[in-house]
Design goal:
This protein has a two-stranded antiparallel ribbon with strand order 1-2. It contains 9 helices and 2 strands, in the order βαααααβαααα.
């Protein structure tokens, strides 16, 4: 599939590794911000935990230069499960593992197949966390991102455009959690006091989709 500029997009191991690297950069740059968000409605460790997990993933992936996309996701997921504390580790780790399993051993992935794999990742999050849109969780950024990604691909606007629209939708979804009352996770214990605070999980999800858009643009 073309990215809309005539360039054929190959979602291969190199692109997925760029996504992981840029995700690690985004999480690291926003570590304190994520922790501040979590301090308001959680355990005040989301940013630190996510940063530690992605830093470990980068180390683990350093030797796997020939990994296919599914293998990159599988390695990343396993690292996050074992290195990220709280609920985020199992949720993100399982998401990446399921995404990788859906891709199998293919070396180059069509964007439509990639979208389907990301949906498998979302379904894994929802199975594990029993969350739906509006619960003030990761889902509130992830689901809008996939909806935007699918809409752009169906319109034939190319993968680069789709990735950017997904990043915008995830960012808007994270911001939309501010007036919500949390119904899942530790934040739900606060009841009405969770209103007025942006969800840290939705925010880190938005950062990951922003990293995807950057990874697609960065062809170096």
């Amino acid at each position: 599939m073309s990215d809309g500029t005539g360039t054929v997009v190959r979602i291969d191991g190199a692109l997925v590794r760029r996504w992981v690297r840029l995700s690690a950069d985004q999480i690291s740059a926003n570590r304190d911000y994520l922790t501040q968000l979590d301090a308001a409605i959680g355990d005040a460790d989301h940013g630190v935990n996510m940063d530690r997990g992605f830093a470990a993933a980068m180390t683990d992936l350093a030797a796997g230069v020939d990994l296919v996309p599914g293998e990159v996701f599988a390695h990343l997921g396993s690292t996050l499960i074992y290195r990220v504390g709280g609920a985020a580790g199992p949720l993100y780790g399982t998401m990446y593992r399921e995404t990788g399993a859906a891709l199998g051993g293919e070396t180059a992935i069509d964007p439509e197949v990639f979208l389907t794999a990301l949906r498998s990742g979302l379904e894994a999050i929802q199975r594990l966390g029993a969350a739906v849109e509006g619960d003030k969780t990761i889902v509130d950024a992830y689901l809008p991102a996939l909806t935007a990604l699918e809409r752009e691909l169906r319109a034939g606007n190319g993968f680069s455009s789709a990735a950017h629209r997904a990043a915008e939708a995830a960012r808007d979804g994270a911001r939309a959690t501010i007036p919500m009352q949390a119904r899942k996770g530790r934040a739900s214990y606060l009841g009405a006091r969770s209103v007025g605070h942006q969800d840290p999980g939705a925010t880190s999800t938005a950062l990951l989709f922003a990293a995807l858009a950057s990874a697609v643009d960065d062809r170096t």
